[in-house]
Each structure stands twice: as C-alpha cells, then as structure tokens.
Amino acid sequence: MPKGQNEIPSYTLILHGPRKKMGLTMAEYAIAEAVYHLQHNPVVSGWCFASRTKLADIIGQSRRAVFNMIDKLVEKGLLDRQEETGYLRTTATWYKEVVVFREKTTKSTGGAKIAPVVQSEVVQNVPKGGAKTAPYSNTYSNKNTLEFSFKGEELAKEVVKWLKKDINQPKDGLRKTDKELKAMVMNCIKAYGDEVINEIFIRRSMGDDPNTYAFWQDIKRLKAIKQADAARLATNRKKEEMLSRKP
User: Fold this and answer.
1) Based on the domain organization, do 83 and 129 belong to the same domain?
2) Which of 136, 186, 234, 241 could form a disulfide with 205 if both were Cys (CB 3.0 to 4.6 A apart)?
3) Residue 107, class by beta-carbon neighbours within 10 Å (0-12 exposed, 13-18 middle, 19+ buried)?
4) Do residues 185 and 153 touch, judged by C-beta distance below 8 A?
5) Is the pLDDT of residue 81 over 90?
6) pTM score over 0.85
7) Three-state DSSP class for 81?
C-alpha cells in the first residue's frame, strides 16, 4: 500500500446550486471536491488515497467530523469507498451534478474565468508525441455558458466527424467504419446521457491538448464509475436482504 497522499488542492470552488440540490454543507462539498481532484494521481489511478487526517487538514475540520461526512457522502451515492483500503473516489452522480454543471457554466483555466469563445478558429497545441489535431469550433454564449446544441443522433454525427478528422490517428486510418463509430458513440450517449457526452466532446475537441485518445479515456472512466456504482448498489441490496431475514 502506498504512503499517504500529501498533495493539497490549491482551492475549492463551491457551486452553491449543486450543493443545495444535493443537500450538502460547504464542508461536505469541500471533502467531495478534494476527493475528485486527488483521485487523479499517478500512484493509485482513479482513487484518492489521502488519509482522513490529511482530508481533515485540507478543509479545517476534525478527523471524526471527516469520517461522518464521508459516511454521508457514500450514503448519498456521491462517493465510492473501497472496502479493503478505504480509498475514495467520486461517482458518476457527482460528475453529472457538479463537473458537468461547472463545464456548462464556466470555461476555466486554472480556476479563473476566461473570456467567451465564439466560433474559435485558433490553431490548437501539439499533443505530446503527435502532430496537430484538427481544430474544432463551437459556440459559447456571452455569459460564459456552454450552449449544448448537440443531442442524440446529431451529437453522435458531430463526434464521429471529429474522430475521423483527427490526424493523430494511426497511418492505416481508423479501423472502424463511420457506421460502427456512430453506433459506439450512440451507445455512450444512451448509457451516460447527452449532456455528459457533449461536455466531454467539447472539452476534448477544444481544450488545450485536443485529442481523441483522451475522449475515449474519459468514456472508459465513466464506465468504470458506473460499474462501481452498480456493484455498490448490489452489495447494499444483499446486505439489506440479509438484515431483513434476521429474526
């Protein structure tokens, strides 16, 4: 087991709309947000392995209070807790309610709002080890709100167009036909919803390091989170059934 995680998030952006909707205190929200940032690490990929003492230090609460807050976040389906290690990670519910909401309302770099982008045609950065990725443009409103104009079949069509346009693909080209790619994207849309896939598509096609590999890696992470959620729910159901059978 690796040593305790020592990284400290540089700031916590609290979105009060989602916080109130989920019924969280600011401290509970801060814990979940810290876990979300700390789970992206090269040591235990996908999991926050910071000690409860470290989390308590990050948000300025007692260790006991942090244990109680984590229990509440797990019960609400906002955090997953690994039984063997106690490692934590945020769930698809947190991603949808907070991360997608944040991407829809602000386009940020390092936590600061930037000016709206309208039909951007700037040359994108060069991904490591590859050539330039063909730029992709989309419209942001003058309130820094991302306009989610693509849905369903239209969204799938735009994603496939971008995937085929990416010149970072292998020399022999994509092995999937347009029809096969569209079916794959439509399955993702049906599984995770228009807004989630649209957010990933816009972020990965217009970000500082646009590439299709990162798009599929995001989808892969969503799948893992969804599977973990399903496993957790199944385990909880079994526990409830066992308790109900006791005299």
Assistant:
1) no
2) 136
3) buried
4) no
5) yes
6) no
7) strand
